[in-house]
Design brief:
alpha+beta, OB fold (Dihydrolipoamide Acetyltransferase, E2P), 4 domains, five-stranded mixed barrel, 12 strands
Length: 544
Amino acid sequence: MKKLLAKLQPDRFEDIIAVLALYRPGPLNSGMVDDFIKRKRGEQAIDYFHDSLKDCLSPTYGVIVYQEQVMQIAQTIAGYSLGGADLLRRAMGKKKPEEMAQQREIFIKGALDKGHSQALATRLFDLMEKFAEYGFNKSHTAAYAVLTYQTAWLKSHHTAEFMAATLSADMDDTDKVAFFMADARANGVRVLAPDINASNYRFEPVRKKSEQSPEHDVVQIYYGLGAVRGVGESAVLNILSCRREAGAFKDIFDFCSRIDRRVVNKRAIEALVKAGAFDRIHQNRAQLLAAVGLAVQAADQAQANTHQAGLFGGLDDDDSNAHKIEMPKAAPWSERQQLLEEKQALGFCFSGHLFTPYAQEIRRFVSTPLNRISPSRDPIWVTGVVSQSRGQMTKRGMLRIVEIDDGSAKLEVTIFSELWDRYRQVIKVDEPLIILARIENDDFSGGYRGQATEILTLGEARIKFSLGIRLRIAPDAAASAALRGLLDPWRAPRSGCPIFLRMLRDGAECDIQLPEDWRVRPEEEFMRLLTQHFDQESVEIIYR
């Protein structure tokens, strides 16, 4: 539709009505749409067939688009009554040969009686019969056009408010939420992360003064807590009620002590943590998640103490706070882990893209992003994170359609059974994949699709495209022993990746390549262990 509108450049309401009627397989494949666009641009002569049909056909540049136009032509040229013209419309829709033959005879006779030539009558009936196969009811498409124009106006002039309402309308459908969020960002509207102290149940726009231009407001959207998986409306309403009564939550312990845990259960609290709803009061989500159980337990204990105080005459008011509970120690999540936790809580990655942690490395050997590929006779390397995978039965047997996403675009790649059988164990959703594929046009989506000829995991791509792994280590026995322990479980003699040691002694550096028996499988876990033991600067994959 976007491509069609870009070609058409509508500049009046009638064009919107027409384009909604034309954007269907029949008109698109029949050449009607191309004729309509060329005539609007003045690139093709407009033919009204007869001067009396100009008023009827001028809104569509002489192209018969609507069923109502068929009826008007029958009335104007052949003298049909309104009822008779409607019978003609229905006959054309049913395509019954006997009825069509009868209507053709009536039409030609009526045209002759009104002084028109038989050639004109025959030509018009043939055209009406052809276009009636694709004709759309104008009264319907006009109603759609009104809604289209109104929503387009709202989106253009009140973008944040419109997108917030749209997101709220489909907040239970995570695929649509992800799509509309991307649309909001593309239109310059920032969607803020869920916030336990600021978000409400639905997505809501919020106006703030611009730091760059204080006279202008910046409109943003707060993510609705109701769109967090596993939380539910009653839980959110209880959280909002507690926030209104006693103000913002101070920390996870304060939160758990104030909510009704019969409504907001532990699973809902964990989902809010994973979604980032507590980020403004504590940045380390891993630590927060580890603290949820302690916070719930502390809240239960405080409630029990309160009941006991009521039964036995009261306790020290500060008793519940006498022992400050410390947050458990937990290392912050990696970027990838945080994105996966967000996906579990929200249905998609909110704060980034799963391909991002790999992008800098993979672009060393697959340089073309998916939004810049084009059909090619020879296979090309494409890459992305697997976003979905589904099977499909064909005459050639079962094949697999894998969708990859690199953050710039998505691409569906067909993998035939022979290749799928070899790689089915390593093709996993949310994992990066490098594919050699023939790219071709996809008539169904209007974009491109690929056909895989070779598949590589990231580890295999490192072996294929790199010269080896270089490690900077100290030239001593302890470092050598530690290195041996790290490499040994990952050894792949002669088929793996070479290891080069860069040693520094007395101000001089030298590189030593380990023997072939010490080649390794450079899988992601192995690379993580290397950078964990050494440091990021001491581990380098050498690409050609």
